[in-house]
Amino acid sequence: MRLGSSWFRAFPELSLLSTRAERRSAYSQAWRSLGFRDVLPVALACIAIGSGLGVGLYIAARGVASGVRMPPAVGGALAGFLGAMWPFFMVLVLRSKVRVSLRRQLVERGIPICIRCGYDLRGQTEPRCPECGTPFAEGLLRRED
């Protein structure tokens, strides 16, 4: 797994960790923290949508619905492409849950970040996120003298 600049755009929380090893560990742990209840509904929805599109492409390729035939090779290629893409759609849908897990890890490491919105809480004087209003533990407030 290579964590390049595109990963920092998708998961900006990773940029708050100082070493590559810490980023890899946090990223892996965030994905492992997803439970069965997080993944199953997304997987079922992706499979159902992919299956529905596949059936629609099959019908279009057979020319059953409208009398206009799509070449079977085109229909098969599109159905295969959609079937291969469902894991990527799952990642897109589960990304927000992974980001929350990364934020929880950062808070556990003492890096002040809002778990709800990801706002950097360094320098805050009130135990409430100025971006979304979520309260946080006063222990994250660091008074700089």
Can you give me a brief rundown of this structure?
The protein is mostly helical. It has helices at 5-10, 20-32, 36-62, 72-108.
Protein architecture, described:
The protein has 145 residues and is mainly alpha-helical. The chain folds into two domains: 5-111, no CATH class; 112-145. 57% of the residues lie in helices and 0% in strands. Helix 2 packs across helix 4 (72-108) and helix 3 runs antiparallel to helix 4. The radius of gyration is 22 Å and the shape is elongated. The model has no long low-confidence stretch (mean pLDDT 79).
Dominant shape? elongated
Instruction: State the major sheet.
Output: none
Helix-strand category: mainly alpha
- Total number of distinct structural domains: 2
Discrete helix count: 4
Topology readout:
Blueprint: H1 5-10, H2 20-32, H3 36-62, H4 72-108
Short descriptors:
145 residues; mainly alpha; 4 helices; elongated
